[in-house]
Design a protein that fits this description.
Layout lengths: L1 E5 L9 E7 L8 E4 L7 E5 L2 E8 L5 E8 L7 E7 L7 E7 L5 E7 L3 E3 L4 E4 L3 E9 L5 E8 L15 E3 L6 E5 L8 E6 L5 E7 L5 E5 L6 E8 L4 E8 L2
């Protein structure tokens, strides 16, 4: 049995097709009985899956064949980090994909935001940011939406008496001192004035002094965000080079 087959173009589509172009040693005319219920020599608008056909010629001889329509893998978008707007910090969203070298990214969002970067930052408007990822090889696309919010200052706890940062200003390094704060675990993020995260670390119960080297920092003001389970502590550090 000779045939032409077209697999599904993109994940989740139903645009596959199968066409029977000839049956050896069969006497015309031919009757076709497809698993889809069709009775012509071709079927289309097929989703991923298995299809079979029975062909009966004028001598009542029958041949049966099975076909497998396949589809490409789905574009994988993994949300790595969502940072809500927490003044003076801007929001940011970072993602990862399975084959990023083949992809084009299109972001649109509140306040006329648009970007073609994989990760976006300096987000100053709460709301949902829509991402479209296009595979330049298969021309397949996947869309998703990621929302950020503005954290109310009522939810931000400031603990200047308990978490110390020194020396401030600094040149080569500084220390975040948790020794009298009685904090077991926290996520520490440091942002520049543009809201870009330049440092991150996780403090566990055994760490009381966290030393941060500033060799990759430029001169300027930086914001230290210390996230606990239900609190956020904010500090500032000035780096002088």
């Amino acid at each position: 049995m000779n045939h032409n087959q077209k697999d599904v173009s993109c994940y989740g589509n139903c645009d596959g097709s199968i066409e029977i172009t000839g049956v050896e040693n069969a006497k015309l005319p031919l009757k076709y009985q497809w698993s889809t219920g069709d009775s012509s020599n071709s079927i289309d608008n097929l989703c991923k899956g298995q299809y079979f056909v029975a062909i009966i010629d004028s001598n009542n001889c029958q041949v049966v064949d099975t076909f497998q329509i396949s589809e490409p893998d789905e574009i994988s978008i993994v949300i790595d980090t969502i940072n809500d707007i927490n003044q003076p910090f801007s929001g940011s969203i970072s993602i990862s994909t399975d084959t990023p070298n083949n992809y084009l990214y299109t972001w649109v969002g509140p306040c006329d935001f648009s970007s073609n970067k994989q990760d976006i930052d300096s987000l100053n408007c709460k709301g949902c940011y829509n991402l479209s990822v296009l595979d330049t090889i298969t021309n397949c696309k996947k869309d998703t939406s990621i929302c950020i919010k503005t954290i109310s200052t009522n939810n931000v706890a400031r603990a200047k008496k308990y978490i110390r940062v020194y020396p401030n200003p600094t040149r080569e390094s500084f220390t975040i001192d948790f020794s009298i704060a009685e904090i077991e675990q926290a996520n520490i993020n440091i942002y520049d004035l543009a809201g870009k995260k330049i440092f991150e670390s996780i403090k566990n119960s055994s760490v009381q002094l966290l030393k941060v080297k500033t060799e990759n920092f430029k001169s300027g003001l930086y914001f230290i965000e210390i996230r606990l389970k239900n609190k956020i502590y904010n500090k500032k550090i000035v780096v002088i080079k």
